[in-house]
Structure formats: C-alpha cells, structure tokens
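Retro notes
What went well: the complex prediction finally ran end to end.
Inputs used:
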Amino acid sequence: MSVDDLLRNHGLKKTTTRKQVLDIYLNTDHALAVADVEEALGDGVDRVTLYRTMGTFEEKGLLHKVYDDDGKLKFSLCSSDCSSHQHHDNHLHFHCRKCGKTTCIENVAVPEVEGLEGFDIQDVYMVANGTCKDCIQAA
Amino acid sequence: MSVDDLLRNHGLKKTTTRKQVLDIYLNTDHALAVADVEEALGDGVDRVTLYRTMGTFEEKGLLHKVYDDDGKLKFSLCSSDCSSHQHHDNHLHFHCRKCGKTTCIENVAVPEVEGLEGFDIQDVYMVANGTCKDCIQAA
DNA sequence: TCCTTAATGAAACATTGTTGCATTTAACTT
DNA sequence: AAGTTAAATGCAACAATGTTTCATTAAGGA
C-alpha cells in the first residue's frame, strides 16, 4: 500500500513530515527510535514534531511500540489489521545484542499465558534477546 | 536470608546504603525504580549512589531488571539461584495498568520460543499487561 | 590502628520526552 | 481559485532519567 493510502486510511492529514517518516519505516526491516528517524531525515524536522508524529501513528495503528533489551523505545510498522486503540502486534520481537536491531518476527506468535488466576490479562509483550541471523552469518 | 548474608554471599561490601536498599526490596512484593527507592529512603542518599548501588546489585545477581509497559526501568529481587552475569529470571512479569505495580510471577515460566531458525536466543523477556488481583478485588 | 581500595556525594552534563504558544499548512467550503 | 478553519509544526523552555568526573569518606584486611 502507498504512503498516501496508508495516511488516508487511518484518517491522517497528508503532511510532508508524515510522508517522509512513513516512507522510512516502509523501507526498513527493523524498529526505529525517534532519534533514528531524526538522523535518517537529516535535520530539517524538529524533534518535537517527530515525537508527535510517531505518537499519532501509534495511536492510529500505523506503528506499534517496541522496547529493546535496554528499555529503549522504538517503533515498528504495524501489520494491516491494526487500527486505533486496537493493536494486534501479538508476535515475537527479537533484539540482537550485536547489531542492536530489533525486528518483528511476524510468524512467531506470543504464546497464551497459562496459570495466572485472578489477573485480567489485556496483552502480552515478548522479546527474545540474542544474536540475529545476519550477525551470525557475518561472524 | 539476612541482608548481611546476601551482601557477603555476593562479594559486596556491607555499607549503610546497600543494607537500606536491600532491606526495602526484601520488604516489597513488586518491582521498584530508582526513584521509588529514593523516595522510600527519604532523601539523605544521593541519586547517583542509588543508580550505582542498584547497577552493582544487578551485575552481581541480587536484582534483575524489569521494564513495564511504558519502558520504565525497575528492579526486582532475584531468586537465590542468580549470580554474576548469569540471571535466571525466566519467569513471567505482570504489569498492572491500574496501580502501576510490576510484579514477578515466579511460578509462571516463560515458554520456549519455537520456530526461530537461524537466530541464537540467549534469553526471553515476557510481560503481561492488564489488571492485577488487588485492583480487581478493590473494584 | 593503619592502609588500601572501594563506595559515596556533589556538580555538571547528556539524553529522552513533554508542554505551551505562536505560526504555518492541509483540506474543506464557497 | 481564494478564503476559512482546525490541525500540524517549530521553537523555547522544562522535566525526568541516567552518566561522568573528581574529591571525600568509609569498609575491611594487614
């Protein structure tokens, strides 16, 4: 789907910044922090705008939050069935301690949690840490 | 085990601050951030010292890191089989969105990750978000 | 008790994220 | 195509979290 369509489908105004940010995510296979996007855009866009843009994208279901090993917040593109206030990012995330990249493993689902009586579980977040394919092969 | 024993067993000097911090963790059932410990100690101890103390405790296997829903770093007491550079906190963590407390669910193990070919998984981190027992009963 | 090393306190700095307000721009109206 | 309005942006200031350096203090062994 095109950047323009994505924005329209999520009820968002088509601004220059939003198109640029979305384009970056569409062309990246791993999660990006605000600072990463800022760097990719090479100045020109205010930090605050990026925080707001990415916050809006998250609210509207375009991006979902990903936390790596060190609690660093990154964002990753949502699959198409995410919408406002209803994320479906029930997949595993992998954080590579070598290259630092955090990747969505869409084809590995987060398992159901068993044996937690008396709690109301709304969602479960799961990250595996280790060495990714690319870094293993490069070694 | 007593505070003094715990410190000695992990090769740490018995200082006033360390004893106080450890005591707080032994008497709390949920994870605490540096700011929480600072508040519990009611001034008197420098923030920097707490960062260092808790960092040391983590290194030596007395505390393990816990990240809640919002990426906020907290620490939780390790079970007795943790040691330097070899944590065994392979249990589920629960973060309550009502009261904000993050708790270790020691009796629910993190399930094995299946189907990740080509990756080297060192450890897996898992947090369930929702409403905890106490908050459900209080409602 | 003395001595050495580790732990602490204080100040300064770095990074990350937020808030208020003035300005600009997208998208709708006419 | 120009005008209008609400949303998006830029800027400045602030807040929270964490780190680094260095002088001082305290712990634990000799």
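What we learned: The helical segments of chain A are 3-9, 16-26, 34-41, 47-60, 133-138.
What to try next: split runs per interface for comparison.
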